[in-house]
């Protein structure tokens, strides 16, 4: 039997009803009407808990779907990508993913200037213009267990991961937005210091006292911060920003550089590019990817070049 006969021509639409403090559920009817208005055939599935979109995506691809729309935020998109890479039915480059943004950070979509307006976002999907972008693969530990995760935008270590974890705790309480992020950032800063870290970038070893570190395929994180301002989504390389040990007052004074793209001009901040990055530390350094809190060091990153198709303007 021809395997192609099982392929679905419609879109699998994965809706996170909790995204954007409930906007996913509240705005779904409007989104549904627009999908029908523009003649986009679809089957909607709602997530019911964290990580559920991974399972829905994997099963959907195995059932013949090759086109997937994430209705949610960066976390929903991350789970869809992980589902794409965990299925065994086809190469990931055979898949096409799109986003209708209802989240709070929207950093992956910001990179491509994907409209926040639902109708304009759905017009993009109807136009069907794609680019094959890189994907990141990260191996990390939770206690003694070695785990793996994929990501499509940015991973952060050190202070960035602590802020992410504390921000996610606030999100779980129904609190979100830039004000909550800044409050969490400042509160996290009071109790955080630095980590003595060994970083191997394609065989070149760096030893630093690291405050925070980012590995980017995309440029934006934290609701608009340019932590990896020169990243290119399809060059087969991570952009790596290492912020060395700083005084707390210096961190606060440097926040402006995180938003205007001049972060690499700071004397205590260095930028690198690489394909395979291994990180060890004392004490343990923690990890987040696409805003999802993960585990800790030792950590290894690998780039998977031009491995999945995304709908862009």
Keywords:
Rossmann fold; two-stranded antiparallel ribbon; 16 strands; Tumour Suppressor Smad4; 313 residues; alpha+beta; 10 helices; 2 domains
Characterize the structure shown.
Helices cover 31% and strands 37% of the residues. The protein is of the alpha+beta class and 313 residues long. It folds into 2 domains: 3-128, 3-Layer(aba) Sandwich (Rossmann fold), CATH 3.40.50; 136-305, Tumour Suppressor Smad4 (Sandwich). The strands form 2 sheets. It has a 6-stranded antiparallel barrel with strand order 7-9-8-14-16-15. Helix 3 crosses helix 4. The protein is globular, with a radius of gyration of 19 Å. It starts with 10 loop residues before the first strand and ends with a strand. The mean pLDDT is 93.
Structural topology:
Layout (H helix, E strand, L loop, with lengths): L10 E5 L3 H8 L1 H10 L4 E5 L5 H11 L4 E6 L1 H13 L9 E6 L5 H6 L5 H10 L2 E13 L2 E7 L2 E5 H14 L5 H13 L4 E7 L2 E13 L3 E2 L3 E2 L11 E7 L3 H6 L1 H6 L8 E6 L1 E7 L3 E4 L2 E20 L2
Parallel strand pairs: 1-2, 1-3, 3-4, 4-16
Antiparallel strand pairs: 5-6, 5-16, 7-9, 7-15, 8-9, 8-14, 9-12, 10-11, 12-13, 14-16, 15-16
